Structures are given as C-alpha cells and as structure tokens.
Automatic annotation (TrEMBL):
Stretches assigned to the FYVE-type domain: 42-97
Gene designation: Zfyve21
Full protein name: ZFY21 protein
SUPFAM superfamilies listed in its UniProt record: FYVE/PHD zinc finger (SSF57903)
Superkingdom assignment: Eukaryota
Keyword flag Ribonucleoprotein: no
Species whose genome carries this gene: Baryphthengus martii
UniProt keyword Zinc-finger, yes or no: yes
Molecular functions (GO terms): zinc ion binding
A Pfam family recorded for this sequence: ZFYVE21_C
Keywords: Metal-binding, Zinc, Zinc-finger
Length: 232
C-alpha cells in the first residue's frame, strides 16, 4: 500500500438523505466527490419547485438528494445511484439531477475502475531523454496518480493542471485515431512551478497496448470532465 492510501478507513453514517459510506478522515475524500446540499426548508417551499403544484395533506413534498430543492412526488420520483456523495443505495432525485447522475454512472462504473486497475507506460520526467517503465494507476481513494517502477511517484489529482492525450493514425477522412500516450503538467506541493511528465504506451505486448489505450481513454474522460468530476 502506498503512503497516499494509509488512511483509507471508511465509516457508515446516516444522514437525512440516506446511508453513506464515507472516509473516516476528511483529508482522504475523493476529489471527484460532492458534499450533500443543504435542504430548502419546508416552510420556504409551499409549492413544487418544478411544476408549481401546491403541497397539502395529499400532495407531499420531497427533497432531491443532489440539489436539495423541494418537489412533489411526480417531479422527484426517480431513485438513482449517487456515488459522488457516497450513498450506499440509490436515492431520490429530481428529473434534472437524475439525468446528470445517470450520465456520470459510466464514469464511476467503468473509467474509474480502469484507472484504479492501472496500466504500464514508459514515463519521462521533464526534459530528460531517459524513460522508465512504470505501472500507473489511480489510488483506491482516488486522490493520487501512483507510479511504480525503479522510482516511485504520487501525484495529487487536484495538482494536475493539464492533460494532453497523444494520438496517432489520423486519416484524411478523420477518425481512426489511437491513443498512444499523454503529457500532463502538475504542481509539486510547496512549489508554484509546473512539472511535466510524458507517458508512452508500451509496444511489447498487444494486451498491454489495449490496456494502455483504455487507461488513456479514461484519463481523457477525467480531463474532459474538468470541474464536472473534480472538486476544486
């Protein structure tokens, strides 16, 4: 286990929104996570904030777990997984928030798992002309990019400023490109200067090439999502 994963213990907590499995230490929270929103007080929402239906004894009010706004059952009936808030079970969300959460599900179900499984690359630091074969993966707490070879690096995700995916195989008609590497820039804690690191996919084994391509595609998803996924 790397140093960045030394405090990964989690605890089960109950909030008004439902059961959540959260890190015991706030410093171990995922940069992709979201805080629970404050609920709009019942006395401030006499009507549904979507369809304007008046609440009464029959028409009850419900709070969306993602935005905290108040809705009638018709406008807030969907229960959708919300891993960004660490909910154990699917939770009630309004139609707009449910759509966003459903779009994010692929990122959590696929891309994050690919990144945490890791892939092998030749890594070049800065302007060096020497590269090192390293296994690169996202830490279990999703806070660090961990690189292991003869050397060892732990890069905090929130310190990464740019990610450029390198491709080859562009055709005149467009498409058919393949990710072959990436260049990222990040800040080392205590320094304002950017450090550059280049990743090049290994060509040794076809299975490694396929795994590396999938890993790079997942990193592209993270960088493209920007503030959609990263809590900055």
């Amino acid at each position: 286990m790397s140093g960045c994963e030394a405090c990964d213990a989690k605890k089960l907590v109950r909030s008004p929104s439902g059961l959540r499995m959260v890190p015991e230490h706030r410093s171990a929270r995922s940069p992709f996570g979201l805080d629970e929103p404050p609920w709009v007080p019942d006395k401030e929402c006499p009507r549904c904030m979507q369809c304007d239906t008046k609440f009464d004894f029959i028409t009850r009010k419900h709070h969306c777990r993602r935005c905290g706004k108040c809705f009638c059952d018709k406008c807030c009936s969907k229960k959708v997984p919300l891993p960004r808030m660490c909910f154990v079970d699917p939770v009630r969300q309004c139609a707009e928030c449910a759509l966003i959460s459903q779009k994010e599900s692929e990122f959590y179900d696929k891309q994050l798992k690919v990144l945490m499984n890791g892939a092998t690359f030749f890594v070049t630091l800065g302007t060096s002309d020497k590269s090192e074969l390293m296994v690169c993966r996202l830490s279990n707490n999703q806070r660090y990019l961990v690189l292991d070879g003869d050397s060892h690096y732990e890069i905090e995700i929130i310190q990464i400023s740019t990610v450029q995916i390198l491709t080859e195989g562009f055709t005149p008609g467009g498409g058919n490109t393949r990710a072959i590497g990436m260049v990222l820039q990040y800040k080392v804690p205590g320094s304002e200067e950017l450090t550059q690191m280049k990743f090049t996919a290994s060509e040794d084994f076809s299975c490694n090439k396929k795994l590396s391509t999938s890993w790079l595609a997942a990193m592209h998803k993270v960088s493209k999502g920007g503030k959609t996924y990263r809590r900055v």
